[in-house]
Amino acid sequence: QSGVALVVTYLKSGQSALASEAARKLLASSPDNIVYINLLGVALFMDNKLDEARGQFTAALSRDATFTPAAINLGKLELKSGQFEDARARFKQMLARTPNEPKLLLEASRVEIAADNPREGLRLAEAAARHKDASLDSIFHFYDLLVADGKLDDALELALRASAQHELNFDLLERLALLQLRMKDRDDAHVTMKHMSQAAAFDVDKQLRTASFMASIGQFPDAEYVLFKALQQRPNDRTVRLAQVDNSLRKSAFDEALERATALIIDERDFAPAYYLRGEAQQALRRYDAALLDFDKANELVPNPESVLGSYRALRAAGRVSEARARLVARLKIEPKEMLVRMTLAEDHIAAEQYAAARQEYQTLLELRPDDPDLINNYAYSCLQLGDKTEALRAAQKANKIAPQNAMVSDTLGWILVQSGRADEGLPFLRDAAARASDDGEIHYHLAVALHGLGRVDEARSEITRALAVGRPFSSVEQARALQNSLPQMVK
């Protein structure tokens, strides 16, 4: 038994090679023990030695064809190897013997999902999750399928029922909190997070996750208390102290964040994240030269795109626009496939009205991510600004086909049609965009131009009024004011 426990301990800690070695020694002491044979197969499977693992599972089944653990493991191996029909037949055979066994239902569901048979996969998953002896794995699997299918109410009902049965299970509560946030139920999410704090007990990693959740909904005092408890478990732990800095930043206590980050740097001179967060505090306090030094130091210690973008923001805020752009270009020479850096460079070109350079960057981005509607949309906009209305329209239509509910995409397509003299065709897209993003002045301006072009002056005037009443600047605000002034006044 001690030998089995050792193998299991290695497996749980991810040390598959040591688990295999220990399992071989165990099997040598009793070569015909099917439990030991199966256990060696599991260790080999975890070590990605699939052929050897298959041999062990097959050997166990040759000694006892009804030994379910080996049959399940062999089915899981077949699934990982892409042998969907073999895995399906194996689980079907086992379910014929024990049709309501929840573990078999779970694994059979996974096979159907992987084989692109979601309806059957969902049916099996539900049967496994609603079984009186359902495991948390079964519940999590069914929950994840429901969320992926957009059945959020069903997922919420499942999570609430399961949390009542499995009181203070952290992983379950974490899923529940995420779902409540997605459903914009912040009050219930806050209650769930307090339960997460209880469930985390003395586990610092779970305490950190809980604190991050709490901070995400503005519950900074609760987050601070959870981090205080974590620091009691691990005094001076740099990860916990870094989370305290982050919490200070999130609640806009920038002086506190600066003080905490500086104290952490004194103790941890080579801890790049501390320099990065201190840079964020310096940036928020408008100390741009100091922020630049911290971002550069973070990148010197651990080269990464976030620090480069921090330096870019500090330089731009200090008015050193050309130097800021040069940082992005230099980074892309080293890491040309860093999407976020290249997207920032493309946006920088747009802001500088360098549309040819922007289009080139978006073309490169689309080679990496060809079906991203936001990238296609921005590429279409840069083409429009260059006067290439044909290519702009083609790209905008493609983006709209991929993401018809995206307000920015609808706006771009509608605006391109208006600019191409087809205001009647563009109008429905602009109305849709304005309905989805009612606080976007640029969209209301585009809609006003379309209505004005169609001779619907009163409606155009209303849209211009909405555009200018938003209270936030937008790129065409001066054109909007000019259009407003050019419209005849209403006769009362």
Structure, explained:
The protein is an all-alpha fold. The protein contains 29 helices and no strands. Helix 1 runs antiparallel to helix 2, helix 23 runs antiparallel to helix 24 and helix 27 packs antiparallel against helix 28. It starts with a helix and ends in a 6-residue tail after the last helix.
Task: Note the topology.
Layout: H1 2-12, H2 16-29, H3 34-46, H4 50-63, H5 68-80, H6 84-97, H7 102-114, H8 118-129, H9 136-148, H10 152-165, H11 170-182, H12 186-200, H13 204-216, H14 220-233, H15 238-250, H16 254-267, H17 272-284, H18 288-301, H19 305-317, H20 321-334, H21 339-351, H22 355-368, H23 373-385, H24 389-402, H25 407-419, H26 423-436, H27 441-453, H28 457-469, H29 477-486
Helix pairs in contact: 1-2, 2-3, 3-4, 3-5, 4-5, 5-6, 5-7, 6-7, 7-8, 8-9, 9-10, 10-11, 11-12, 12-13, 13-14, 13-15, 14-15, 15-16, 15-17, 16-17, 17-18, 17-19, 18-19, 19-20, 20-21, 21-22, 22-23, 23-24, 23-25, 24-25, 25-26, 25-27, 26-27, 27-28, 28-29
Assembly state (oligomeric): single chain
Count of DSSP strands: 0
The mean pLDDT is 95
Return the structural class: mainly alpha
Give a quick account of the main beta sheet: strands, pairing sense, barrel closure: none
Helix tally?
A: 29
Measured as a percent range, the helix fraction is: over 70%
Q: Helix-strand pattern, N to C? A: HHHHHHHHHHHHHHHHHHHHHHHHHHHHH
Radius of gyration: 29 Å
Short description:
By secondary structure, this protein is mainly α.
Write out key terms for the chains shown.
mainly alpha, single chain, 492 residues, 29 helices, 0% strand
